[in-house]
Amino acid sequence: MGFDPKKVIEWGMSLPLMSNERGIMAAFGIYAAMNFNEFFFSTVSKIMHMAKEEDALEIENKLYQAVLDCAYYTFHGARTSVDWQDYIAPMIKTKEDELLALVAFTNIFGVGYINVVDLIPGEKLVTEVKNAYDPPRYIEEFGIQKRARCYMFAACTAACMDLVYGPKFPNGIGTFKAKEVLCIAKGDPICRFIATPKNT
Prior knowledge:
This protein is an alpha+beta fold. The protein contains seven helices and six strands, in the order αββααααββααββ.
């Protein structure tokens, strides 16, 4: 039997997620801020619709890079934690198992369930999300979008490939680039992401 990503979610859900008075929680071997998504969504969505086309593209690139930075370091922190080493690492036999574990880790945060659709080791990762948090809100507020809006899942898909198939941490960030080829915000039935080497 192969690696079971559900075990990663079970592990994550078993850890305490209490935050202190500043909204900082210590779990998964990392420190993270626990806050509401509403401010981010309201600010970003309004700015994106007010900006000129070229400015909007630059903002999207910066959002992608910000999430990539966050995911790369956060996922690395999780996979080097004592809890991960005790519970998840023994189930990992191959690089592909590690990638599945990192993708599954994304699902702990409750913003949509990301699933691996296709993987060519070291070359391509295809993921899909059927229930991404943000697209329905974009449609409700602004209607069908011209471009894909799931910057977080795109960057997380790339970060997983960076960590597993890129140069050793911290030099692997940006080795892969992910593009959202389908998005519910554009009227597609699902959100789909494809990560390939950055220079291809």
